[in-house]
């Protein structure tokens, strides 16, 4: 209820023989009260909205979801390979706990994988630990070290779950019935493993009685490294000593990134520069490909064209646009033996003469 509505209702309670016009005594006495009451109604409506996950936010959303057993996922720490060599280029041993840094990130050695190769954990949580950088500098003095190089991501990190992501996961959890090794049960428990960002579950209809197949991706939606696959396999267990119920034989694989080459011709407004517009079109193309969900089976040609057309105000139209060499939707295989996800390949943007 707003200020004017409250004030009008208060004035209506006063007999008409009194002056209730603006500037009158009753008006001046009641207006401040109505203003304060209007504020109270606003705060009350806001407070009520915080009780429900669909409209709540921040710490109040945490409380609303936690009542149903769904907690916000915290940021995790990236695990990376670090390769150490001496001055002659030979693999070199460094002590566990040794720290290396670059570009504001620090990584600490946790485990030796093989001579000169180590598993290191970022000391700062979040996706910043996934950055691709080359040479590292030792923070602790290491005698004889020639070079330390940051290698591939073993287990990708994620940022703290956003309000939107938490709402989506909450809605999915309350609409499904995870129980006794059904698809929802596997999906919920596998996604709870640090490093897993997506999973597809295949059961008996696809693989046979007692067989379960899991296809996973990392937190960035990229194919999972062997380190993460091994971690999931250990959590799944055998004969009921892990996530999988007794009698389930579970095979864990990762997805295959399918590079999608795209070429587009742009029709620009008079005076517009292709060199200015080109980065926007490329960004829109990469954005659309990245937005394709892990379980979506199609790259849509029309959506690609739409993304290009709306990427910059100087684009009037498009000429020939090809998606993986064709002008039709591109299907992605979603079988257990070949589970494809779309990845931006070569992008060629040209102008129409």
Give the number of DSSP strands.
14
Tally of separate domains? 4
**Secondary-structure element series:** HHHEEEEEEHHEHEHEEHEHEEE
Largest sheet: 6 strands, antiparallel, barrel
Helix coverage percent: 25-40%
Structural class label: alpha+beta
Instruction: Give the distance, in angstroms, between the N- and C-terminal Cα atoms.
Output: 61 Å
Return Rg in Å: 29 Å
Quote the beta fraction.
25-35%
Which segments are poorly predicted (pLDDT under 50) over 5 or more consecutive residues? none
Within the largest sheet, what's the order of strands? 1-4-3-2-5-6
Mean pLDDT: 92
Shape: extended
Enumerate how many helices there are, as a single number: 9
Describe this structure in words.
With 353 residues, the chain is an alpha+beta fold. It folds into 4 domains: 3-49; 79-155, no CATH class; 176-254, GMP Synthetase, Chain A, domain 3 (2-Layer Sandwich); 257-351. It has 9 helices and 14 strands. The chain has helices spanning 3-12, 25-49, 58-66, 163-175, 183-191, 204-207, 226-236, 274-291, 301-309; strands at 79-86, 99-102, 105-114, 117-122, 135-138, 145-155, 196-202, 211-218, 249-254, 256-268, 298-299, 315-323, 330-331, 340-351. The strands form 4 sheets. It has a 6-stranded antiparallel beta barrel. It has a 3-stranded mixed beta sheet with strand order 7-8-9. α7 links the parallel β8 and β9. α1 (3-12) crosses α2 and α8 runs antiparallel to α9 (301-309). The model has no long low-confidence stretch (mean pLDDT 92).
């Amino acid at each position: 209820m707003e200020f004017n509505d409250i004030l009008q209702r208060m004035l209506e309670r006063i007999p008409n023989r009194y002056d209730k016009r603006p500037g009158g005594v009753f008006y001046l006495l009641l207006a401040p009260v109505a203003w304060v009451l209007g504020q109270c109604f606003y705060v009350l409506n806001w407070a009520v909205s915080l009780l429900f996950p669909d409209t709540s936010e921040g710490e109040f959303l945490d409380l609303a979801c936690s009542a149903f057993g769904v907690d916000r996922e915290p940021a995790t720490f990236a695990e990376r390979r670090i390769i150490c060599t001496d001055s002659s280029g030979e693999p070199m041993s460094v002590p566990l706990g040794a720290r290396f840094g670059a570009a504001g990130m620090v990584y600490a050695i946790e485990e030796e994988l093989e001579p000169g190769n180590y598993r290191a954990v970022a000391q700062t949580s979040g996706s910043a630990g996934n950055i691709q950088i080359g040479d590292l500098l030792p923070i602790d003095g290491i005698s004889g070290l020639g070079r330390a190089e940051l290698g591939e991501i073993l287990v990708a990190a994620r940022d703290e779950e956003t309000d939107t992501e938490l709402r989506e996961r909450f809605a999915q959890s309350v609409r499904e019935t995870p129980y006794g090794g059904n698809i929802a049960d596997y999906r919920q428990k596998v996604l709870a493993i640090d490093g897993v960002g997506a999973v597809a579950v295949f059961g008996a209809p696809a693989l046979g009685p007692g067989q379960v197949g899991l296809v996973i991706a990392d937190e960035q939606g990229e194919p999972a490294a062997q380190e993460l696959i091994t971690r999931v396999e250990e959590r799944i267990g055998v004969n009921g000593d892990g996530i999988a119920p007794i009698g389930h034989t579970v095979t864990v694989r990762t997805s295959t990134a399918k590079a999608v080459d795209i070429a587009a011709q742009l029709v620009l407004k008079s005076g517009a520069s292709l060199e200015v517009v080109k980065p926007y079109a490329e960004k829109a193309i990469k954005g659309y490909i990245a937005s394709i969900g892990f379980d979506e089976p199609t790259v849509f040609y029309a959506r690609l064209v739409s993304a290009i057309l709306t990427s910059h105000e100087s684009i009037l139209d498009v000429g020939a646009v090809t998606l993986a060499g064709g002008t039709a939707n591109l299907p992605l295989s979603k079988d257990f033996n070949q589970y494809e996800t779309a990845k931006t390949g070569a992008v060629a943007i040209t102008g129409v003469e």
